[in-house]
Amino acid sequence: LGQTLKEASREIGISFHTFFKWEHGIRTPHSPLYSKIISYLGYDPWGEADLTFGNLLHLARLRLGLTRTNLSEQLGICRGAYARWENDRITRPCMRERRLLEKFLKQGIPPEDDLTEIQATSKGQNFKKQ
């Protein structure tokens, strides 16, 4: 982009030392900064080819600048279960969670009404407004 590390770090809103550590693989960016990095670069440097379901969840969460706790609360999934999905360590998959996470990957965080409907449907109830 034709900028020095100092100029780039200033534009992203981080210290020169932080940017230097990213550039040299010493540290990785914190989740709230991913959206700023994408905005600064003008493209998403984290491609999606050959990624596992957990990797896709991880990238989608980082792109939104959310922590696991933030996202799991917004989706209505316990943090531990979400972490297992994201780490590809799920041993007993819950289909409700899988559907919810697939929808998140396709559409982002669903509105509250959609979450309630998905949760109710997964319990054998369907009180969708007609």
Write up this protein.
This protein is an all-alpha fold. 58% of the residues lie in helices and 0% in strands. It is built from eight helices and no strands. 12% of the residues are buried. Residues 118-130 have low confidence and may be disordered.
SSE layout and pairing:
Elements: H1 5-12, H2 16-23, H3 34-41, H4 53-63, H5 68-75, H6 79-86, H7 95-107, H8 112-122
Helix pairs in contact: 1-2, 7-8
- Largest sheet, described in full? none
The helix tally amounts to 8
Q: If you compute it from the alpha carbons, what radius of gyration comes out, rounded to the nearest whole angstrom?
A: 18 Å
Low-confidence stretches: 118-130
Strand content: under 5%
Helix fraction by DSSP (H/I, runs of at least 4): 55-70%
Order of helices and strands: HHHHHHHH
Write down the overall mean pLDDT: 80
What's the count of strands? 0
Span between termini: 52 Å
Structural class: mainly alpha
The coarse silhouette is elongated
Task: Give me some keywords for this one.
about 0% strand, about 130 residues, mainly alpha, disordered C terminus, single chain
Overview in brief:
This protein has 130 residues and is an all-alpha fold. The chain is 58% helix and 0% strand.
